[in-house]
Amino acid sequence: MALDVCEIFYGIQGESTYQGMPCVFIRLSGCNLRCRWCDTGYAYDAGLTMSISEIMEKAGQFGCPIVEVTGGEPLLQKETPALVDAFLNIGLLVLLETNGSQDIAKVDSRCIRIVDVKCPSSGMEEHNDYSNLSRMTEKDELKFVIASREDYEFARKRVRLLDFDGCRMNAIHFSPVFGELDPKTLAEWILQDRLEVRLHLQMHKFIWGKDARGV
Ligand SMILES: C[S@@+](CC[C@H](N)C(=O)[O-])C[C@H]1O[C@@H](n2cnc3c(N)ncnc32)[C@H](O)[C@@H]1O
Ligand SMILES: Nc1nc2[nH]cc(C(=O)O)c2c(=O)[nH]1
Ligand code: SF4
Ligand SMILES: [Mg+2]
Questions:
Q1: What distance in Å separates the CA atoms of residue 197 and residue 174, rounded to the nearest whole number?
Q2: Which positions make up the binding site for substrate?
Q3: 159-195, pLDDT tens digit by residue?
Q4: Which cofactor does it need (predicted)?
Q5: Rounded-to-integer distance, Cα 14 and Cα 26, Å
Q6: How remote is the CA of residue 131 from the centroid of ligand 1, in Å?
Q7: Are 38 and 121 a contacting pair, CB within 8 Å?
Q8: Ligand 4 mean position to 38 CA, how many Å?
Q9: Which residues are CB-contacts of 69 (< 8 A; sequence separation ≥ 6)?
Q10: Predicted confidence (pLDDT) per residue in 32-75, tens digit
Q11: Ligand 1 in reach of 141 Cβ (< 6 A)
Q12: With helix as H, strand as E and coil as C, how does 120-159 read?
């Protein structure tokens, strides 16, 4: 029962509807995608092998009720569902950030699954598994990371196709690629179209800068 871990740290949740909350991050190593603008290339390589109990002990040191499992791509590792269960079973609130290419049903639906839909300029659009949209529950969150008008129109089209059964209207995030698309431009597009989506800015980058690690 071991996982390949890139880093474990305590920080301010910079993304999702939990933005602003203190959170323990478990960043797993390895990713099957290579998004053009990825800010976490350091997680592609193998990290440190840790057992579930070692991870829980390290995470537990912070005494924090919220944990996020991210990566890299966390759903590539066989033991990730068991890690999520272990945190759920001790009563923690668990978030999982995933790239949308893997079946989210692998993890317990008590976990809040934050699912990216990759837009064209990521170069990874062909990897989207759209079946995930019907696997999502009301607790889960959807995210489009947007670098251009083309990406925005792609995301807008997808949102208009959604029925909102499995997705809360306030948990559809439109997030600009940091340093590439001006948040003001994205805000104006959303307002012009009267889109019921959330403008999502990566809070930690405004606090610590775009290249800081472990925050
Ligand atoms: C590093 S990924 C790890 C989880 C998973 N691999 C994924 O892509 O969702 C975490 C989140 O950061 C977003 N992200 C990565 N680079 C970014 C950038 N330069 N600007 C904005 N968001 C970015 C990803 O789209 C994803 O939503
Ligand atoms: N502070 C902070 N919040 C985050 N939320 C999701 C992150 C991620 O890389 O998945 C992230 C991250 O890297 N840092
Ligand atoms: S899927 Fe996530 S970790 Fe992998 S390259 Fe894309 S943004 Fe980076
Ligand atoms: Mg990050």
A1: 7
A2: 12-14, 27, 70
A3: 998 876 677 878 999 999 999 999 999 999 999 999 9
A4: Mg(2+); [4Fe-4S] cluster; S-adenosyl-L-methionine
A5: 14
A6: 20
A7: no
A8: 9
A9: 26, 28, 80, 83, 84, 87, 94, 95, 96, 97
A10: 999 999 999 999 999 999 999 999 999 999 999 999 999 999 99
A11: no
A12: HHHCCHHHCCCHHHHHCCCCCEEEEEECCHHHHHHHHHHH
Residue 58 to residue 67: CA distance in whole angstroms: 12
What residue owns the CA closest to ligand 3's atom 8?
A: 38
**Closest to 114 in 3D by CA, of 211, 202, 208, 5:** 202
CA 51 to centroid of ligand 2, rounded, Å: 22
Q: Which residues line ligand 3 (CB under 6 A)?
A: 31, 33-35, 38, 40, 71-73, 99
- Distance from residue 211's CA to the centre of ligand 1 (Å): 14
* Residue 122, both tokens: 């990521």
Yes or no: say if 112 and 93 are a contact pair by the CB < 8 Å rule. Answer: yes
User: For the structural domain made of 2-208, what CATH number should be given?
Assistant: 3.20.20.70
Q: Which pTM value belongs to this model?
A: 0.98
How much is the ipTM here?
0.99
Show Cβ contacts of residue 64 under 8 Å, excluding neighbours closer than 6 positions.
Answer: 10, 22, 23, 24
Question: Among 6, 7, 15, 38, which is best to mutate for testing ligand 3, by the most ligand atoms less than 8 A from CB?
Answer: 38
